[in-house]
Amino acid sequence: MSSNFSENWLLKIAKDLENSREINLNGLPLLVEGRRDKELLLELGFTGPIEILNRGVSLENLATQLLEKYSRSMKYKEPFISILMDWDRTGERLQKKLTQIFNSMDEHIDDTLRKNLIRSLNGRTKTVEGFRFLLEDLLKLMDTDTNP
Predict the structure, then answer these.
(1) What is the pTM of this model?
(2) Domains in the chain and their CATH numbers?
(3) Which helix (H) or strand (E) holds 121?
(4) What phi-psi label fits residue 56: left (phi over 0), alpha (psi between -120 and 50 degrees) or beta?
(5) Which of 86, 87, 84, 79 is nearest to 109 (CA)?
(6) Who's near 33: CB < 8 A, 6+ residues apart?
(7) For residue 76, what is the DSSP state?
(8) Using an 8 Å Cβ cutoff, are 1 and 7 in contact?
């Protein structure tokens, strides 16, 4: 167990990830900043749609592409997408801008996982891929929790 985290905090993070993983599995796409973020989520067992932000298109064009891609095949009507940007300065700006864009399209986003990770990680990292140091502990807790 990581010395920086009590077991209760790790359990909370694992539970938040499990909940988001289940929602993602049921069809709610998850939007992350980059490839390493996606790779970490795949290692954590996310198997639903995971989209990467950095594609060389404007945020508005990306939002339109995602809406076209997922609007007809979604199992969830609302929210439209879950957004998990980093919680550094750039991530905050991207999260806010994407939320505004999707809201202007009358689409609502889910940012529950991001808010929960920010609170639980309490400044120990400011990026999604930054909590990779917890991967082994989280996988043990998530596997134990999902396979009694």
Answers:
(1) 0.87
(2) 7-146 (3.40.1360.10)
(3) helix 112-121
(4) left
(5) 79
(6) 52, 53, 54, 85, 86, 91, 94, 128
(7) -
(8) yes
pLDDT in single tens digits along all 148 residues of the chain? 444 457 788 899 999 999 999 999 998 999 999 999 999 999 999 999 999 997 789 999 999 999 999 875 445 457 889 999 999 999 999 999 999 999 999 888 999 999 999 999 988 899 999 999 999 999 999 865 444 4
**57 Ramachandran zone, left/alpha/beta (phi>0; psi -120 to 50):** beta
DSSP 31: E
**Pick from 63, 44, 22, 20: which is nearest to 141 by CA?**
44
